[in-house]
Amino acid sequence: MTRLLAATVVACGLLVANAHAAPPPTITAGTLTVGVSMPSDGFQVGVVDGSRVIFAAGLEIDLANELAGRLELTSTTLLQSAFGDLLAPGAKPWDAALAQVAITKARGRNVDFSTWYMRVDQGVLLSQYIERTPRSRAGLRALRLCAQKGSSGARAIRRRVKPSRKPLLIDDVPDLMLDLQLGRCDAVVDDLPSLATAMAHAPRRYGALAGVIRTRERYGVVLPQGSELKRPINGAIRTMRTDGTIARLERKWLEFSTAKVRVLK
Amino acid sequence: MAASTAADRLRRLEMRLSARAMTVVCAALVVLVAPAAAQADVTVYFLKGEQVSTVSRPGTTAADAARQLLAGPTEAELAQGYRTYIRKRTALRSITVAGDLATIDLSLPFVKGRNANNLRARLTQVVYTLVGPQGVKRVQLRVDGGTVLGVFPSVDTAVPVTPSSLETPDTRPPDETEPPERVERKPAKPSAVLDAQRRLIKLHYLVKGDADGKLGPATQAAVIAFQKWEGLQRDGVIGPQTRARLAIAKRPTPITRGPGRRAEVLIDRQVALAIRNNRVTRVIHVSTGKPSTPTTIGSFRVYAQFERWWSVPFSEWLLWASPFNAGIAFHQFPDVPVFAASHGCVRITAAQALWMYRFLEVGDAVRVIARS
Q1: Strands B101-106 and A45-49, bridge-based pairing
Q2: Paired strand residues for A71
Q3: Whether A168 contacts A146, CB under 8 Å
Q4: Which of A36, A52, A54 is best to mutate for the B interface (most B CBs within 10 A)?
Q5: What angle in degrees, to the nearest 10, is found between the helix axes of A59-70 and A230-242?
Q6: Strand pairing class (A209-223; B51-58)
Q7: Which of A47, A104, A192, B102 could form a disulfide with B146 if both were Cys (CB 3.0 to 4.6 A apart)?
Q8: Which residues from chain A sit within 8 angstroms of residue B115, using beta carbons?
Q9: SS3 for A9?
């Protein structure tokens, strides 16, 4: 009887251990296929050939690899995609997507989101040709503000700043930052980490970081609706938040401190 | 029949002779033209200090130029101060020219590394080198056959890059009168600072009029220069050790002798000496080239002076620049650490750069000395 009980316990233990070791179902067995949308300074830059990613580096690339490791998957494959396609309804060619996507209800109608991995506000970076730094949102109203089309920055301009001049909405981030450098934009409103990293890389090309508009957005991993990965990914992210992994990645890739940035009220 | 045979023979002889003549002419042309072809050169862009600097290499095509660029500077060129920022293992996968567009495909090491300055410099080298041969005016970069996105800060490499897009300053020139640097150290007592300033003036680390009792940027730079010359800890603080040494120190003397106005850059001490008639006029706190891009040792002459000099490879303004070896120059820089940190130039603080610029003139001798 004792022997039978012991054998049952061992068998159960093996079953539990096997169940724990089994990686979650993914498009390609053993591989986490991650959708990305390059470039974004500090978060993801690299080399692509169509949707094939030849080389990539940045906070979200490291995060993708960390996630794969914690899900006990042996490799990560990256797929380049247009930002809008990541959030469009329909089937996805990836298991998860990372592209500084803020979790919103509207976006949640087409895709699922994991729990958040970073909390961000919208930064306001001035052109080098703006002499006086606005100290409030009211001070921004007369400026020609720019943001990426469809971004949280564009929404913050529309809802929180309510400018008197029509904002300039630009398709991609490199063009947006170039317009700021050349003075076609007086200020750009975008995720604070991106602006601060761009400024850290080329401080003399921009004016002052005027401040932040508190939006308290949260970046989440984008998942196809009904994804079975949601639960294990949530668990992995929560662990990474508490064990300091995400803080370490921020220190590695984002060269700025937001401690002294003014809040624009 | 016989007549016709003789005529035929004559015609054949003429043909043979003319063929031989043609051969001789062609051979002569080959002999004449071949050396000219061998002498055809492409211009390859490396860096010296903060600016691009060229060397000539044999070749005629964009592919020749690319191969020569990737080969890097020769030992002799390295000794002259030429540097490349392209990683050693970067390989040329392919290059095609269509119209005025060269499309170059390089291997992955080309985009490796996170130093924004180094990345920008290596892209500048490629674009400058490829523009010219075969009428190339624009360069499309590919890496392992793919499009490069966001790797080179502030340069969109998804589209062709032109030299003018790199040359056009994307930042306005800084004002001539820079705001004083912020001094974050705890200031010494005014009387102690004033005493130190008076000694520093006497020893030629400061100039007359600098004794204001405040530990400002000029005084701090002078204290660091003094500490460097005297072999003290380089902290810019007028502490007991520095004060004690100030009391007994002597005016620095030049390492070499030479006529008139000139400058010495002492790599080991990280100071520059402004010299007139073999007497030191002022000792300047400088930061020279870091170990990977050392300032070239040797004797040179200031060949130009620029109030503002745009550095294409590093995309920044250099104020009060006095170049003396291609792109290697004395110039103002916001960050002048107490150790060698530059790309080969001689960095000077805002508090002392204008003085040095005015002291030097085109033609003045500059001697860079490794050990003093």
Answers
A1: unpaired
A2: none
A3: yes
A4: A54
A5: 110
A6: unpaired
A7: A47
A8: none
A9: helix
Alpha carbon distance A32, B297 (integer Å): 54
* Residue B282: φ, ψ to 5°: -160, 145
Residue B158 with chain A: CB contacts under 8 Å: 174
C-beta atoms surrounding B54 within 10 Å: 15
Residue B33: both structure tokens together:
């033209």
Mean pLDDT of A235-240: 97
Amino acid identity for residue A2 in this structure: T
Choose the closest CB to B171 out of A38, A178, A205: A205
Reading the block at residue B353, the tokens are 């750069």
The C-alpha of A109 sits at a distance from chain B's nearest C-alpha, in angstroms, of 30
- List chain B pLDDT tens, one digit each, 372 residues: 344 444 555 455 454 444 444 444 444 444 444 444 445 899 999 999 999 999 999 999 999 999 999 999 999 999 999 999 999 999 999 999 999 999 999 999 999 998 888 999 999 999 999 998 989 999 999 999 999 999 998 788 999 999 988 876 666 666 654 444 444 455 555 678 889 999 999 999 999 888 888 888 899 999 999 999 999 999 988 999 999 999 999 999 999 999 999 999 999 999 999 999 999 999 999 999 999 899 999 999 999 999 888 888 888 888 999 999 999 999 999 889 999 999 999 999 988 999 999 999 999 999 999 998
Interface of B with A (CB under 8 A): 108, 111, 114, 116, 143-151, 153-154, 156, 158, 170-172, 174, 315-317
Which secondary-structure segment (H or E) carries A77?
A: strand A75-80
Contact (CB, 8 A) for B171 and B316 = yes
Decide: A222 and A99 in contact? Cβ < 8 Å.
yes
Tell me the average pLDDT across A195-208.
81
C-alpha span between B201 and B281 (Å, rounded): 10
**Sheet with B279-287, side-by-side order of all strands:** B298-301, B365-369, B261-266, B271-276, B279-287, B346-348, B328-332, B316-325, B306-311
SS3 assignment, position B95: strand
A204–B317 CB contact, under 8 Å: yes
Interface touch A39/B146, C-beta < 8 Å:
no
Distances (CA, A) of B366 to A229, B322, B324, B356, B357: 67, 10, 7, 12, 13
- Amino acid (one-letter) located at B118: N
The DSSP code for B86 is S
R_g over Cα of chain B:
29
Residue A110 makes CB contacts below 8 A (sequence gap 6+) with A87, A88, A89, A225
* Adjacent-strand bridge partners of B286: B348
- Angstrom distance (rounded) from CA A154 to CA A149: 6
pLDDT bracket for residue A2 (50, 70, 90) = low
Buried b vs exposed e over B334-345: b needs ≥16 C-beta within 10 Å? Answer: eebebebbbbbb
Please report where in the chains the tokens 């990426």 appear, as a residue: A148
CB under 8 Å to A17, separation ≥6 — which residues?
none
CA distances from B278 to B230, B263, B275, B346 (A): 20, 10, 6, 21
How far apart (Å, rounded) are the C-alpha atoms in residues B225 and B231? 10
Alpha helical stretches, state H, chain B: 2-39, 62-71, 75-79, 116-130, 163-167, 190-202, 217-230, 240-248, 350-359
d(CA B203, CA B224): 13
Q: Tokens representing A136?
A: 């409030």
- Please name the residues in contact with B16: beta carbons below 8 A apart, sequence gap of 6 or more: none
